[in-house]
Amino acid sequence: MDYMIGVDIGTTTTKSVLYDMKGKVVAYANSGYQLYQDAPDMAEEDPDDILHAVIEVMGQVMYKSKVKADEIKGVSFSSAMHSLILMDEADQPLTKAITWADNRAAKYSDELKDNGLGAKIYARTGTPIHPMAPLSKILWLRHEKPELFKKAKKFIDLKTYVFFKLFGVYRMDYSIASATGMFNIFDLKWNQGVLDLLQITEKQLPELVETTASISGIAPRFAELLNISTRTPFIFGASDGVLSNLGVDAIDPGVVAVTIGTSGAVRVTVDKPVVDPDGKLFCYALTKDKWVVGGPVNNGGIVFRWVKDQLFAPERITAEQMQVSTYDILTQIAEKIPAGSDGLLFHPYLGGERAPIWNAYARGSFFGLTRNHTRAHMVRAALEGIVYNLYVVMLTIEKVAGKPKSIQATGGFARSALWRQMLADIFEQPITIPESFESSCLGAAVLGMYALGYIDNLAAVKDMIGVTDVHKPNSDNFEVYRELLPIWIRISHLLEPEYKEIADFQRKHTK
Ligand code: ADP
To answer: What's this model's pTM, rounded to 2 decimal places?
Structure first.
């Protein structure tokens, strides 16, 4: 039989799934690694840890599945975005991999925003101006670590590093490139103006390839370790975000992918690159003809975790003793409260926020509290607030990508029927929860099947994903949300100018 391996290089774990050509999971493996956070705002990984994890998970799925080397028709990759590694003249890493979560370049992204250059760069690159982007990181290194900057022969990302180790070439796909802040999404080239600003040359960046491009001839020692053939093509693939859209079948116009895991995201696929006049959305490549527009949100399920740990500690202990999920107990409590939480509103900005407000100083708040509100109202308001915030991201997306028509939703939140229904009611859209497991791995595998001609169209993913739940918006509920949303949005604008002062106070006084 024919099989395909999908590999997803994540921030804390690399995963691999071996699929048959119908997208059925045959074997799965994952391997975690350390995130180095020795200094404030630092978040790095050792690139060799990632390489070892990639080898380990691929080796494991080969071992577990007992599939023969020549039955593997391809290996296709997904990767976290925005990582940066500096390589020296001898092709050795000069730095660890600086990840998206590293904020040390904040001063330089702030400068780009303030001097107006940022808006011009965003209009060509589709990457929001933020410390996460390699653009900001390279500026930071040039100013603050000039000795490293001067020694750098190449500026690459984690996936380019893995491919370099396996095949000896520096190549980056359009998708990962489109999240660097240095790539012109309209002409598919490195942007010369940005390179001039950074004082680097095109030769210092990887060669650009399509996401469907492949390479074979893996170094024999790795072929042996993995028990695969040196003839097996490796597809360069794309970033985890856009592949997750593919892996949940959100690739048609108007089909929105909403994720609420620890963090969250709203993303929709369009057929041409588009940018947002306010610079608040990303636009990243899936293929040359499919682009994913969206916004990443810091405050997803992590806020529900805070409610559980800080407001319901006794329930947590009881739940643990009864061996049930505290989240399930809390959603049962919230279910007794009517939609709209009797007018209690919650802004979920416990961890600053990226989309929709892009304000690192943002803080959370309850608004509208009365003596009648209970802890149960607070849980429901928190769950609603997380979804209101995602809905505001959707409103921004609508301006550049048109009205949504349905939602494919994923992430830990989907374990709660109440929360799923809330998403349908607040967005006023039918929502489907796909069964697909490890959607970025599936997206990578499907892209690989397409690249190698095993399927004619990416839409073949439709038959691979399965469905666990479907929810239709409930008109009684959405009428309430329609009334509350404008208030929620107005309050969030009113609070915006106040966030910095309270954040400064907290920084100054909190030990
Ligand atoms: P990650 O994004 O880190 O991969 P998940 O997708 O598993 O994580 O999402 C974790 C979040 O899912 C938790 O923070 C919590 O908010 C939410 N969650 C987990 N279990 C439940 C549950 N039973 N009901 C509702 N929400 C849940």
So the answer is: 0.95
